[in-house]
Structures are given as C-alpha cells and as structure tokens.
Amino acid sequence: MVGRTGLTAVLLANAVVVAVFFAQAGFASNALIVLGRLAGLYAALLMAFQLLLVARLPWFDRRIGMDRLTSWHRWTGFSVLWLLLAHAVFIVFGYAASSSLDPVNQLVDLAETVEGVLRAIVALAIILVVGAVSARYARRRLAYETWHFIHLYTYVAVVLAFTHQVAAGTTFASSPAATAYWYALWGGALAAVFAGRLVLPLWRNLRHRLRVSAVVPENDHVVSVYVTGRDLDRLPARAGQFFLWRFLTRDRWWQANPFSLSAAPDGRTLRLTVKRAGAGSAALRHLKVGTRVFAEGPYGAFTTLHRTRPDAVLIAGGVGVTPIRALLEELHGHAVVIYRVATDRDAVLYDELRDLALARGAELHLVTGPPVPDRLAPPELARLVPDLAERDVYLCGPPPMMNAVLGSLRELGVPGPQIHFERFSLAG
C-alpha cells in the first residue's frame, strides 16, 4: 500500500508541476496547438513514469509486485500512445489551420524545417509498432522472445522523444527551472533503469557466481534445479519470490524465464521447480552440474512481508505449489494448505508438502478432480476453512483457477488487504 500510494503521489505531483510550467510558458493563439503541446508534455511525463515502472527497483518490487507494476506499465503505455497521437494530430492540424497547407504537406514541412520533428515522427512510429504487438490478440500469438525484442525498441523511441523535446519544446526552454525539471525527470528515470536493470543484476551475479549444483526430476514433466554460489546468505531472497533465470548454455543463454523458489532460501542453496511447458523449460532436465547461471532478482511481493493476520491459508493450483511450499517453510502461526490438482499424480512436491505441514502443525487438503465443477467454490472453501475471513490468504496457480478462487474469496467476504497473489508477467 505504501509503494502504490507513493507512486501515485509522485505522478500526481509531477502532473501539477508540468501544468504550472506549461501555463508559465504562455499559450499559442491556436487552441489546437495548445492542446497538442499539452498532450505532448503529459506523454513525456508518462514515458518517464513508464521507465520507473520497469526499472525493477527492489523497494517498489517488494511492496507492489512485478505483476502489478507490469500491469500499470501496460496501461501507461497505451495512454502514452494515445497522447502522442493526440499531440501529433493537434499540432499538425493546428499549424495547418494557420497556413495554406493541407495536413499532410504541413507535416512534411514541419519535418523539413523544425529541428527534432523528424525524430519525433520516428519515435511515434516505433511506439505504434510496439503498441500493436502489445495488444492482447497479437501478444498471445508471438513468442515472448520476439515480443521482448520488439519491445526493446521503446528505449530508442524514448531517446528520440527526449531529443525532440529538447530541440522543439517551448515549455522545455521557457525558463531555467523548467529546463532543470525536465532534465532531472528524464535523468532520474533513465538512472533508475540503468541501476535496476543493469548495475544491480551484474553486481549480484559477479558477487554470488551462481552455478547448477543438482538436477532432480520430480516426475515425467517436472524437474527441480538446485543452484549454489558464494555468500548466498547475503542475497536478499525470501520465500514466495522468483528470479529471472538464464542458464548459460550454448543454446539457452539468451532466454530469461521467471521461476519461483520452491524452497525457502537457506543461505546455501536456491531451488526452483519447473513444469515442462515449452522447449526452454523442457531443456532444464538436461542441464549439467556446474552450468553457470545468471539470475535477476529476487522479485515479487508474494511474501510474508505483507502479513495482516496471525494465521494463514495457502491455496495452490498445479505447479503454483512451488512458492506456496516455500512460504509454508517461513510462515509463523497456524496454516491451512489447500492443493488443487486434476489427479493425485499431478501433485508435485506433495510428499515434501505433507512432511512440512506435519512438522509445522499445518492442515493439508489435497483437492482433486476436473475443473468443472469448481472444487474451490465458496461452499467448499468455507467448509475447509470455517474462519477463512480471519486469515491471510496466499494464492498461486493457473490464471483460470486464480480468477475463480479470487471470486470465491470476495463472495466469502475476505478483505482485500488479506488476499495475496501474484501473476508472473514481464515487460520492458
């Protein structure tokens, strides 16, 4: 809550500052040009805010979670796209209204005569392409690596847009204070990305020198990978968090995949447990001991940091049991664990979960059966956990199952602050 409130307050405060500098710069006689300039300024502000959202700074990530930051980034991105389109349309039509040129020739004239406009056109074209491939229809049909490679061109658009603002922005140059503000805004956003996406991961990996220490098949479709390294007791990882793992083999070094820790960090070893879902996850079964690992993280707010009640319910679906199993190791107070799978054979790590529940005095319920009828509907949840509304609820599993359980929790009156979940999604 603190992180969300802080980010919202920062954005609103900057929106006010931008409006003040815009007013101080004076207004053009043409209303379309005024609207175009204002849209461009707020597009620039949101672009800088987007960089902060994907900087993966630990303070924000631990308090908000990468899934929520990514969701905000997505909607901020579409807002930027519409503001940039409004900026271009209003500016072109505004100048065309004051000249004898039609809008197309007016755009060509601006590109040829005003420094920075051509760069702005290229930046807008890049944003349009990125926006198109980020739409849900296209996103589902693209491999993550392809989408991510295209998405990286957003950074080129950011640089081009900033140089356009420096060259042609009347508000940018309206006063020394305005110029200093925009340089500080862009500089701070770019510094956050540089620190969170490059400096911190490189420093941590050079420090810890991670390597694969064991590869253990759990069944025909699931494998656990054990990773060791130096000074792991100083790695700020907690149960429930995940890393972006790169296994530095000849054919997989360029792929980064988000996998949760399936055991609480003990200062000596990290463990991830992965279900085969594609070529990348299937290849983990064939990793050799000693393979170098580059890991970004830890990430995620799905931890005990946000506990609000002394007792808890842990609900897992399928391989979503991995962070749940790790959390059970770390949780204090009475816990009820509900593990939802199609058949007994799908219950990955069930023996570990059973032994751990027994050692910690937790209740464990294995719920099996097809998705329909819903075995975790409100009556069933209320039967399994009569005092559900008095507990923290941790939830991890496939999206359809999570959506259904979240609906059941709301129907049973579980307060929002007591519900903890995280969806794995990446951006930027």
Automatic annotation (TrEMBL):
Location relative to the cell: Membrane
Membrane spanning stretches: 7-27, 33-54, 75-97, 117-138, 150-168, 180-200
Membrane topology value: Multi-pass membrane protein
Keyword Flavoprotein carried by entry: yes
PROSITE patterns per the UniProt record, alphabetical: FAD_FR (PS51384)
Lineage: superkingdom: Bacteria
Domain FAD-binding FR-type: residue ranges: 205-305
Keyword hit for Oxidoreductase: yes
A Pfam family it matches: Ferric_reduct
Primary location group: membrane
InterPro entries: FAD-bd_FR_type (IPR017927), Fe3_Rdtase_TM_dom (IPR013130), FNR_nucleotide-bd (IPR039261), MRET (IPR050415), OxRdtase_FAD/NAD-bd (IPR001433), Riboflavin_synthase-like_b-brl (IPR017938)
Cofactors (names): FAD
PANTHER family cross-referenced by the UniProt entry: 1,2-PHENYLACETYL-COA EPOXIDASE, SUBUNIT E, NADH OXIDOREDUCTASE HCR
Protein name: Ferric reductase-like transmembrane domain-containing protein
Source organism of the structure: Streptomyces tibetensis
